[in-house]
Amino acid sequence: MSFLPYQFSEHFAQQLDAQDPLASFRSRFHFPKVNGKAAIYFCGNSLGIQPKSVKDHLERELNNWADLAVDGHFHGEDAWYHVRKKSKPALAEIVGAHEHEVVAMNHLSVNLHLLMVSFYRPTKERYKIIVEAGAFPSDQYMLESQIKFHGLDPADALVELTPRPGEHTLRTEDILTEIKKQGDKLAMVNMAGLQYYTGQLFDMQAITAAAHEVGAVAGFDLAHAAGNAVLKLHDWDVDFATWCSYKYLNSGPGNISGIFVHERYAERPDLPRFAGWWGHDEDERFKMEKGFVPMFGADGWQLANNNVLALAAHQASLDIFQEAGMENLRAKSEKLTGYLEFLIREISGESGVLEIITPKNPAERGCQLSLLIHRGGKAVFDEFYKHGVVGDWRNPNVIRLAPTPLYNSFMDVFRFAQILEQSLEKFA
Ligand SMILES: *Cc1c(COP(=O)(O)O)cnc(C)c1O
């Protein structure tokens, strides 16, 4: 890489942008404004910004609805009856799956519950679930309520992994050791793929292999991994996964989720599941007869007919991902996040105000850096915002910054660094 080592200079940042093959994607997005100026938007981990093409995609479906109404279900190329198929090629690429292993549906928390119905089948002997401590609250509530639903006690059934004393993130070896230790008692590992708070990317392949070794299944919540890390769910042999589309996948607030179910479960009508008509064999669906016959693959977990407007916005963004390519995005992401890390370390130095808790190894992180604020607290974050930086604050004292390779530039990172330097003068 010709431009390394990094330099703290505007000229250098401009050079990186000039060499960036993905630089033009930035112009395809609407940037929000802070104080009348386009923000330095580092909050794609929470809500991705709007692709300009969303409007056209939505308008097309609004027109179809206006012009065709009920006939839209079966009319023409865009027939809504088959709309779920459109997003499959991109979703398969993004999570590393076969098309029949993925489908867009529902919301993330809903999908977690639905997948638990099939994959969490506790017995007297084998009932434990391993999760990282401090998991996203929805995941905590989901796991707790699922365990109670089976008449079990979360205090006993849930094994929460905490980092070693003095450390902020988990060591893979410790995760694998715990899996082995739980052994015959372990029903499932159900972790984030990329931890929302620390930004740690877990070794899903190793975790899955270890879970299988002891006879357990492995499922991942990919809310912060989808569209961020390169994923190979099929090859890693992951049993199931789900994600949302409004974070790195830029598909709009609260938009549709997606699921992955490994193809070894593609034809398992015996697997318990909560069924609905949209998971039923689509050639037979309109016979409206008794007797649920699940569709092949992930489609067999669908319940309800598709939200066409949601999928239209989703598709606008997925088209962009396919054009950019996950491997290209990842290559830029490592440089971009590396540059942010370099500049933060240059500026905060020994001041002790900031501490990056996200792993230093690029293989163990995505594009997010989580900073512990040791002095100044939320005032530091507010100072960033005053100068146009949109990041994300988590209690008690973490700022999360996510330079996303699709629409952030090296100059964004540089400009942030200047703001950081000014802000720290107030708090150092
Ligand atoms: C964002 C996020 C969610 C949100 O769930 P929704 O059902 O989309 O509201 C859940 N889990 C994790 C890990 C998240 O990061």
From TrEMBL:
InterPro entries: Kynureninase, PyrdxlP-dep_Trfase, PyrdxlP-dep_Trfase_major, PyrdxlP-dep_Trfase_small. Keywords: Hydrolase, Pyridine nucleotide biosynthesis, Pyridoxal phosphate. It comes from the Bacteria. GO terms for molecular function: kynureninase activity. Its EC number is 3.7.1.3. Pathway: Amino-acid degradation; L-kynurenine degradation; L-alanine and anthranilate from L-kynurenine: step 1/1; Cofactor biosynthesis; NAD(+) biosynthesis; quinolinate from L-kynurenine: step 2/3. Gene3D superfamilies: Aspartate Aminotransferase, domain 1, Type I PLP-dependent aspartate aminotransferase-like (Major domain). Pyridoxal 5'-phosphate binds at residues 108-109, 136-139, 221, 224, 246, 277, 305. It is an enzyme of class 3 (hydrolase). The modification N6-(pyridoxal phosphate)lysine is found at residue 247. Its cofactor is pyridoxal 5'-phosphate. It catalyses: L-kynurenine + H2O = anthranilate + L-alanine + H(+); 3-hydroxy-L-kynurenine + H2O = 3-hydroxyanthranilate + L-alanine + H(+). Pfam families: KYNU_C (PF22580). Catalyzes the cleavage of L-kynurenine (L-Kyn) and L-3-hydroxykynurenine (L-3OHKyn) into anthranilic acid (AA) and 3-hydroxyanthranilic acid (3-OHAA), respectively. Homodimer. NCBIfam families: kynureninase (TIGR01814). Belongs to the kynureninase family. This is Kynureninase. The gene is kynU.
